[in-house]
Amino acid sequence: MATFGRYGLWLNQRNWPDDANEQATIAAEIEELGYGSVWIGGSPADDLVLPEKILAATSRLVVGTSIIDIWRSDPATVAASFARLEDAYPGRFLLGLGMGHAPSTEATGQQYVRPLSKLRSYLEELPTVPAQRRLLAALGPKALDLASTAAAGALPYLVPPAHTADARRILGPDRLLIPEQKVFLGDDPATARAAGRRGTAIYLQLPNYTRNLQRYGLTEEDWAGEGSDRWVDTLVAWGNPDSVRTKVSEHFNAGADHVALQVLGETPLALPEIRAAAKVFLS
Fold first, then answer.
1. What does the alpha-carbon distance between residue 198 and residue 178 come to, in Å, rounded to a whole number?
2. Beta strands 37-41 and 68-69: pairing type?
3. What's domain 7-183+254-278's architecture?
4. Sequence-distant (≥ 6) Cβ neighbours of residue 160 within 8 angstroms
5. Greatest Cα pair distance in the chain
6. Confidence check: pLDDT of 219 > 60
7. What is the rounded average pLDDT of the residues 87-101?
8. What are the pLDDT digits (tens) for 3-33?
């Protein structure tokens, strides 16, 4: 499997342009900037078309899903798509899978019950995807334990460094641990927290995240309204370049192998800010 250094990018699939040439240009620039990976969020489709286009436009970039929603993705399609990418770009694609959330699942007419059992069953339907090529979006101890035995490791999302430390303890020393971390380069508190709220507001109503964050000191008061300052400060590394770099390094100190940076900015894809972040983290 290809190596991918310390830093990658987490990018929502909905923020990519539809034009294939634009997609290729962006992917090539991300690789040229020095990022080692791109993680496609926002529940990408099970046909893996966008990851395939990114792989085709680059030569070394590792691409992963963060994550495929098991409630909305056909396992046979996922397995066939993985095989197609592996054949064309061996070792450069990692399949991230996760249990999704009750609102999106119930919107499809399904009941969001026993999600961990659903994930176990789903993994059994992917016998042709090697365990060492899949990662789980694990938050709680039971999901992290499953990631330690049935996958190459975990892709925790919306977590502080204290969670990374707990995840490393549960996963053990030989599993990949790749947390996502939101960053904003700017030390004006009002501007930074406004950007942070734009980047985190959607998660205030998702119990999977809020319950997990209660383990790390947040309370119901923190997700009232648009989220408290403590909510933003816990989830977004903001400030001048040195302070942001220090905050992100806490994940490595806690046991992360790689960090997927979600760079917040003025536009959804935030290309100018992604370029600025490359100077901070990759110079």
1. 23
2. unpaired
3. Alpha-Beta Barrel (3.20)
4. 213, 216, 234, 235
5. 50
6. yes
7. 96
8. 899 999 999 999 999 999 999 999 999 999 9
Question: In this predicted model, what pLDDT tens digit does every residue of 31-71 receive, in sequence order?
Answer: 999 999 999 999 999 999 999 999 999 999 999 999 999 99
Q: Residue 40: exposed, middle, or buried by beta-carbon count in 10 A (0-12, 13-18, 19+)?
A: buried
Residue with tokens 């770009």: 89
Q: ∠ CA 209-211-78 to the nearest 5 degrees?
A: 40
Report the alpha-carbon distance of residue 146 to residue 275 in Å, rounded. 36
> What is the pLDDT, as a whole number, of residue 172?
98
